[in-house]
Amino acid sequence: MANKLFRKKNVDQIIRASLSDGSGGLAKVLGVRDLVSLGIAAIVGAGIFSTIGLASYNGGPAVSLLFVFVAVACVFTALSYAQFASTVPVSGSAYTYAYVAFGELFAWIIGWALILEYAVSNMVVAISWSQYFVSMLEGFGIHLPGWLTMAPGYAVEAYVKLQEQGVGSLSGIERSAAAAYEQAPRLGDLPLIFDLPAGLITFLVTWLVYIGIKESRTASNVMVAIKIGVILFVILGGAFFVKPENWTPFAPNGIEGVLSGVAAVFFAFIGFDSISTTAEECKNPQRDLPKAMILCLLICAVLYVLITLVLTGMVNYTEMNVKDPLAYVFEYVGLDYMAGIVSVTSVVAITSALLVFQLAQPRIWMTMSRDGLLWKRFATIHPKYKTPSFATVVTGVLVAVPALFFKMDFFVDLTSVGTFFAFILVCAGVLYMDHTGISKQSRFRVPYINGKYLITIGLFIAAYAVYYYGQETISEWRNLSVAEIIEHKLLVIVFWFVWIALSVMGYRYRFSLLPVAGILINLYLMSQLGASNWLIFIVWLLIGLLVYFGYGYRHSKLNNNAAG
Question: What SS3 state is found at 361?
């Protein structure tokens, strides 16, 4: 059984499979410009238009450095993705890459994690879109009932606070939420509160993705042009209102405050891997995918750093804990007309991020189904539209329903867990390809830097830095019980042990430094996420294992063909 669980696919098998079962009918229409556009559409979405506010509130202007740090981490990962994409030019993203490097069980785990990543990411984007849309309508004098524009959790919390502490304790937003609770129609004693705009936009984008890749590409290109225009508008226009004193203190809450924004900042960058899910719709995937990944990541990193500095320069970081920070900063400085322009175009801009994620997830399901690990219907290609029709519809339902009823805060951290996990395995997969010689088939390769000694040197430097500059952290650890260390610090311990293991293996096998750096940076960022997110993620993986052993293991085409 163990041999079957870890049986690997070779590149030729995967490419042949992509041309069978009708999946070869996907339309090949995407070039480098289209891929870069899709990448920017995915990366510059809710991250810059929504979660950047909370990250700036927690970390101050120093969050701009966190964007640089996370961008560097993503560059290492993007290089690894690019090598895999040039080697295995089919849909499936990290799922397909794990099948080549680690075998079927790991591929399933990654595929299942990616389902969570894309679904949760789109829930965040849909909810963020709704907030901007409602704000835009109010700018035109159109006011939707509050109970139609928010998650029930917001209204319930505000109403409970109102009852316990009185109206004087509520912020303006909380008062609106409490009013929504009181004004909502009832089904018995249950108030009917839901985020209708979030559900509607998910439905409309799913319909667009369903009817074709050409239509999706055209819509994405138009929306990205508008989006980049808005961001440049904010950067150039806002620069005139920057007050350098707002950048002092630069890191008001220290390194912990900066790192508390890791999930939000990382969420802003995860979209670049969605490009790889369109491999079978690229004209020349082995050449174009690597270029597109690196280009869109570099462009977006520069935009994020500049806009963070402008926002925190215009308004003190203590005022940034808002859901629509780009519009808010212009309202704050009295330029309501610019805030209105930002709100209107932000609605269009965020839609493009929603489109790309809705485009990506069905293609992962299609690939998993093609391998026999999911039901056959997920691999169905529409005869007219040339899209994975059934998988697209299911994706729309699974995103729209939670977006109607859940709070955005619940999803932001959760989406990063599965993403980090996938990124680590992709970087590790490059080490495997180098070791086994598969890399010789790659049209693009991660630049090789011999890590035989450098990985160990880096370990000693990091340990030295912690010892001499991290005495507060060391004191915190000393005050924790064993149970508290296991609950809150276990992943940090895992991080150091993995670094030690990579130092030994790197010395023995002459590992390439850049994929190792990708593994370590992603694992470190992973260790900073809350325990509750990990608990939910583990439950999700356990459900996935039940599905795999209940269906996928028995229907796996790779294992059945081998048995035959």
Answer: helix
Residue 163 and residue 304 in one domain: no
* Alpha-carbon gap, residue 454 to 513, rounded angstroms: 7
pLDDT at 427: 92
For residue 32, is it within any domain? Answer: no
Burial of 136 by CB count in 10 Å (0-12 exposed, 13-18 middle, 19+ buried)? buried
| Domain CATH for 331 | 1.20.1740.10
β-sheet bridge partners, residue 30: 282
Q: Report the domain count for the chain.
A: 2
- Mapped onto helix, strand or coil, the DSSP state of residue 208 is helix
* CA 343 and chain centroid, separation: 23
Q: Which of 376, 409, 436 is the last residue of a domain?
A: 436
Is residue 488 one of the residues assigned to a domain? no
* Strands annotated E in 387-534: none
Q: Do 552 and 373 touch, CB atoms closer than 8 A? A: yes
ω before 61 within 30° of 0 (cis)?
Answer: no
Is residue 368 assigned to a domain? yes
Q: How far apart are CA 405 and CA 274, in angstroms?
A: 26
List the one residue out of 363, 373, 379, 381 whose CA is nearest residue 274: 363
Q: What residue numbers bound the domain in which 183 lies?
A: 153-193
Per-10-residue mean pLDDT, the chain, length 564:
77 72 66 87 69 80 84 85 85 83 90 82 83 80 88 85 78 79 86 91 93 83 83 86 90 79 68 78 86 87 88 88 77 78 77 84 89 91 88 93 79 69 89 89 91 96 88 81 79 93 96 95 81 79 93 87 59
135 and 83 in a common domain:
yes
